[in-house]
Amino acid sequence: MAEAESLETAAEHERILREIESTDTACIGPTLRSVYDGEEHGRFMEKLETRIRNHDREIEKMCNFHYQGFVDSITELLKVRGEAQKLKNQVTDTNRKLQHEGKELVIAMEELKQCRLQQRNISATVDKLMLCLPVLEMYSKLRDQMKTKRHYPALKTLEHLEHTYLPQVSHYRFCKVMVDNIPKLREEIKDVSMSDLKDFLESIRKHSDKIGETAMKQAQQQRNLDNIILQQPRIGSKRKSKKEAYTIFDTEIESTSPKSEQDSGILDVEDEEDDEEVPGAQDLVDFSPVYRCLHIYSVLGARETFENYYRKQRRKQARLVLQPPSNMHETLDGYRKYFNQIVGFFVVEDHILHTTQGLVNRAYIDELWEMALSKTIAALRTHSSYCSDPNLVLDLKNLIVLFADTLQVYGFPVNQLFDMLLEIRDQYSETLLKKWSGIFRNILDSDNYSPIPVTSEEMYKKVIGQFPFQDTELEKQPFPKKFPFSEFVPKVYNQIKEFIYACLKFSEDLHLSSTEVDDMIRKSTNLLLTRTLSNSLQNVIKRKNIGLTELVQIIINTTHLEKSCKYLEEFITNITNVLPETVHTTKLYGTTTFKDARHAAEEEIYTNLNQKIDQFLQLADYDWMTGDLGSKASDYLVDLIAFLRSTFAVFTHLPGKVAQTACMSACKHLATSLMQLLLEAEVRQLTLGALQQFNLDVRECEQFARSGPVPGFQEDTLQLAFIDLRQLLDLFIQWDWSTYLADYGQPTCKYLRVNPVTALTLLEKMKDTSRKNNMFAQFRKNERDKQKLIDTVAKQLRGLISSHHS
Q1: Weakest-pLDDT range from 17-31, 278-292, 398-412, 431-445
Q2: In 508-578, where does DSSP find H-type helix?
Q3: Is the backbone of residue 277 left (phi > 0), alpha (psi -120 to 50) or beta?
């Protein structure tokens, strides 16, 4: 068993040794590992030593066999060494000579190498520069265009530079710088063009006044031509003038290069061949900045931003333009400047509308116009309400008409302006009424209220020319003679005509029909007559210091003015060409006005007369306790009758009924005042003598009534004013109580007008007198009987009064 294991081990060791001998050194590791993994390491080492010794003996045998050949080879090699040394020396010498001789050539070749290298570099540089030069030239051109403010061409150059040239040289650093600067340049162009737009907006804001003034002047000239020369309908002329109005503001865009001249390629210029330059008009505003800016923003894809900005800024400017100055109402220039700015604003917008594609549109313009119209109308309503000068209101109306006509030429609806003018017309009428109120007041205050004297035919015709008056009897009278009316009649008549002319002036150019003009004039004239003139007359009539003479003359004057109303009707008909028979024609109320004034003057005459009578009655100084019988009327009453006679003598020119009414009213008031004087409570006692004196005064009054101070009364009609006093005095003086008491209540009663209450009051005063002044009368039979009679009569009168009340 042990021998078998020994043989296997020996065989394994032999195999390992063969592997070691035949295997590459790098792969010997696993073989050696198998040795160390086994347990026969020592025996393997012994076999390995034995194998090494065997190989050494074989090597030694091999060397011994080839030793002679080796020695011969060494001998030959030593011989070769000497020859090699000689050859080396020769080569070294040859090399030294060659190095010496080739040194210059090497230098020349090095120089040639450098030249060839430089040549290649130069060629490459030229090629690269040929690529870069167009880029640099375009960039230089771009900077020049930026400096000269040719922004639209600069934008085109920038487009070429970015999309055509820079991609070819994109790997260069300077190109990257340029690429990085392109957005900045675009923003710079946008900013600069926007700055130009802002300057443009500021310019048109400043020049709106001048633009509007020019447009309104042209509209005025066109209207004058239409009215004077062409005699064509107003609408047709406006269509024609629209094209002409555009030519004022169509300006050419001038720039310094052909490319910039194409900036306005979006312009839509119509009828270029018809454009006629109006001196100075095209220089008012240069529209090129807005065109350039529009084109630039369009190219940059920011057109909507530009449109929004432009419209926003113009809206702001519109609000500023539409804000009227606080003192605009003071002068016409304030209104004119306000209108000029508005017209200028919308003329510019209309020009932009027709010369650009979509920067502004009709809806935007209409929206602005609606806002402007509402604000303008509100401002005019406010400021015109402060105006008290009719001339200024009339000038304002003409200015508004011109303003409306100018804007209508450009296609803006202006119907609301004409509607507002109708409102201003009412205000104009009010200012006219105020003005004419002062005129009438001055005329009435300065009048002398006496008939107009004329001393020659020339003076007579002058008055007749001023006032329509016809009187054949007056014409036949020799000079000097007098018109029945005073100077205020022709003056007032002429002022009424002037007022009508003033109303007619306002109606011009308002596109009103003749019927509407006629109606307006008649209504305003009616207000003048019924309110202004009527109030002026009433104020004069109600003045405290007005005299009867003046009142009489006012009645005469108003009578003649009333007759002249038909001539005023004819005057209005002539200037409006509307016949009075036309349906809905307003009638003048002048007749009513002058009748009312005359009636007021008549009432004032009656009141004045009564006041004068009262003043005289205040002078009455009766001695109610006197026992003497008077022989003549009281002095105050004589003076009063004399005053009444002289006053009624002045009434000869008055209408008969007026004089009669005044006379009757005076007599009634006198009778009533005398009755009150007799019955007043302060007179507690009176005697029969005082009653006799009072009777004399009443007889004086009756004598005045019988004398007929005013013609036209029937017999004894005027005396009836004193009938109450007469019957009362007769009853007491005649002491006819039996008749009074017996016939009381019968229609044929002699003392029908005596009231028992009045009789009892007067009787009580006489009874008290009898008691106090006749202390001892009770001892006399006659006096005692009289006292009893008075008591009896008083008792019966009380019975009448109580039965009458029951």
Answers
A1: 278-292
A2: 514-527, 534-541, 548-563, 565-576
A3: beta
For residue 402, the surrounding DSSP H or E stretch is helix 390-409
Q: Which residue has the higher pLDDT, 284 or 551?
A: 551
SS3 485: coil
Least confident of 224-233, 299-308, 793-802: 224-233
Q: Distance between CA 386 and CA 779 in Å, rounded?
A: 90
Give backbone dihedrals phi and psi of 633, rounded to 5 degrees, phi first: -70, 160
The confidence score (pLDDT) of residue 117 equals: 92
Averaged pLDDT of the chain: 78
Q: Residue 683: left if φ>0, alpha if ψ -120 to 50, beta else—which one? A: beta
Say how far apart CA 324 and CA 379 lie, in whole Å.
Answer: 7
Whole-prediction pTM value? 0.64
Q: Measure the CA–CA gap between 32 and 53, rounded to whole angstroms.
A: 20
Average pLDDT over residues 670-691: 84
Q: Which residues 6+ apart lie within 8 Å of 176 measured at CB?
A: 170
Q: What single DSSP character describes residue 629?
A: P
Given a contact cutoff of 8 angstroms between Cβ atoms, the answer to whether 399 and 416 are in contact is no
Judge contact between 736 and 757, C-beta under 8 A: no
Please give the pLDDT value at position 265.
Answer: 31
> CA nearest 678: which of 762, 615, 768, 769?
762
Token pair, residue 610, equals: 């009564």
Rounded percentage of the chain residues whose pLDDT exceeds 90: 3
How many Å apart are CA 523 and CA 589, to the nearest integer? Answer: 9
Sign for the CA dihedral angle at 301, 306, 308, 309 comes to: positive
Which residues are CB-contacts of 557 (< 8 A; sequence separation ≥ 6)?
A: 485, 486, 488, 489
Helices (H) and strands (E) in the chain, counts: 28, 2
Q: Is the pLDDT of residue 282 over 70?
A: no
The runs of H, that is alpha helices, within 173-301 are 173-225, 234-249, 258-261, 288-299
